[in-house]
Request: fold
Amino acid sequence: MRAAGTRSTPVETLPDVNLATMRAHHWTHIDNLESILRDGELRAGARPELDVSSPERRESRAAAAVPTGESVSDFVPFALSPDAATWDEVRHGADGPGWSAAARGTRPTDFVVLVVPVAALGEDFVVADGEAAGALTRFGTGPVEGGATARRAAIADPALANIEVLVPGVVAVSSVTLIGVPNDRMRDRVRELLVTVGVAAVRVAVYPPWFKPSEA
Reply:
């Protein structure tokens, strides 16, 4: 029984976010896809043919560290949402200081989205609840701590649009289960590229909403 005049403290219920069942998304310009496929992997710190990041953004991420001590630039970045906040900035014209002049010269339909199951990312990934180089960003390492970070972030960010999933070193192309594209023309281009490079069959699907700027 509860003593008279006392109140029980409500237990905070966190949103149900199960990383093991989710997918991670990595968006890149179509001009970068061939080299990714030929290399057979996404590489941390790679300088793509068309680099959407400004020098300032690269410097900021290189200077920032995750709790394990490594630089943010030592990780391959993914998003839990195909409508990630950073990707949406590019879809809206890449006007911010974090983006390059090359990024501002692109259209959303010039990009593709590589999709990998979170379960295929190993055990060493790091979850950031916002921009990984941000001063107030919180991190969780691995599936357990990372899952807890994602659940806490989901209170204010139900769509998980601001979360980054950082994977150390490289991510094999063989773990990609889907390449999302904006239209039929891009689908045909990507399929032809997969055949040319000799990559094992990867599903290529048209998802127009992934490439449209969000509405204000």
Remarks:
- The chain has one domain: 19-210.
- The first strand starts at residue 23 and ends at 29.
